[in-house]
Amino acid sequence: SGPSSCSPNSSATPTTRTAFLPLTTTPPPPPPLPTPPTPPAGAVARAAAARGEGGTLEWDKDDDEAPDVVVAAANLRALIFGIPQKSRYDVKEMAGNIVPAIATTNAVIAGLIVMEALKVMAGELGRCRLTYLKQFPNMRGKLVYPSQLDPPNPKCYVCRE
User: Fold this and answer.
1) Which residue in 57, 98, 120, 151 has a CA-CA distance of 20 to 30 Å to 50?
2) Contact 37, 91 (CB under 8 A)
3) Phi-psi region of 141 (alpha: psi -120 to 50; beta: other; left: phi over 0)
4) Cβ(29)–Cβ(22) below 8 Å
5) Is 100 within 8 Å of 94 (Cβ atoms)?
6) What is the value of pTM for the model shown?
7) Using an 8 Å Cβ cutoff, are 60 and 66 in contact?
């Protein structure tokens, strides 16, 4: 057959070639990870040495080893998940707030339990309520929602009697 129209020796009218870009392109490389703050040298090694053979490492926010290990672990995890990292001071401040928050929560729950226990002891089971604590307040600003007790389940071995 005759010469191809793409051939340089072709007598046919020259054709224009169009360059096509590939449909998929390689994405740019991700930005480099930020360098985490370095924990004090040997924090984990010092904590292990303080623990001793078979002993336990007790948390004390005023101790040097415990916060260093927590800061190192927290900042490593923050780096992995893209969470802002915290300084040693920030970690100590947060740790100092944990115990009072737990104590307050336990006191509130214990108070609610005692209130219901007093109703049971007085024989006023009809006044007993389940109490739920919601994450967000309702339109009236309430976080604690009391509700009626459910009747015993006749199929339940414990509740039916």
Assistant:
1) 98
2) no
3) left
4) no
5) no
6) 0.42
7) yes
Neighbours of 48 (CB within 10 A): 13
Amino acid at 21: L
- For residues 39 and 41, what is the distance between their CA atoms, to the nearest angstrom? 6
Cα(7)–Cα(9) distance, rounded to whole angstroms? 5
Q: Which two tokens stand for residue 62?
A: 């005023």
State which amino acid sits at residue 148.
Answer: Q
Query: How far apart (Å, rounded) are the C-alpha atoms in residues 55 and 68?
Result: 19
Identity of the residue numbered 64: D
3-state SS string for the chain? CCCCCCCCCCCCCCCCCCCCCCCCCCCCCCCCCCCCCCCCCCHHHHHHHHHCCCCCCCCCCCCCHHHHHHHHHHHHHHHHHCCCCCCHHHHHHHHHHHHHHHHHHHHHHHHHHHHHHHHHHCCCHHHCEEEEECCCCCCCCCCEEEEECCCCCCCCCCCCC
Q: Which residues pair with 47 in a beta bridge?
A: none
Residue keyed to tokens 């307040």: 137
1-52 per-position pLDDT tens digit: 444 444 455 455 555 565 555 556 677 777 777 776 665 556 666 666 666 6
